[in-house]
Amino acid sequence: MLLAVDGDLSGDVWGAVVGQDMEIVLRSSPFEGDGPLEVQVLEDGAPAKFVKVEAIQRLGQKNEPRIHAARTSTSGAVSFDLDPGRWVIRATTAESTGDNTWHSHWAAYSLFIPEAS
After folding, report:
1. Are 47 and 20 in contact (CB under 8 A)?
2. In this predicted model, what pLDDT tens digit does every residue of 46-84 receive, in sequence order?
């Protein structure tokens, strides 16, 4: 989860690679700029190609989901135009290992995009 403490938006911890089996890495700051949020998905340290990625925001009293979905490029990259608010970005891969057995990796990244000042 990504949090800004006491309004301090400096630093680039948001883009850190931590070495999980599957991870979502932000390639642009969610705190700066008006452009899309650039994301890269890594699996075993390498770009995860053609993986479905979803950015999900819950809205309203009924908590209705607002979902943006895209597939990563050959470099594991994808971008989303996200409005201010709380978001979860998630990705999953699965491959058959035979005998009705599957090997899956899951990753999620929670963040809050502040209103432009």
Report:
1. no
2. 999 999 999 999 887 777 889 999 999 999 999 999 988
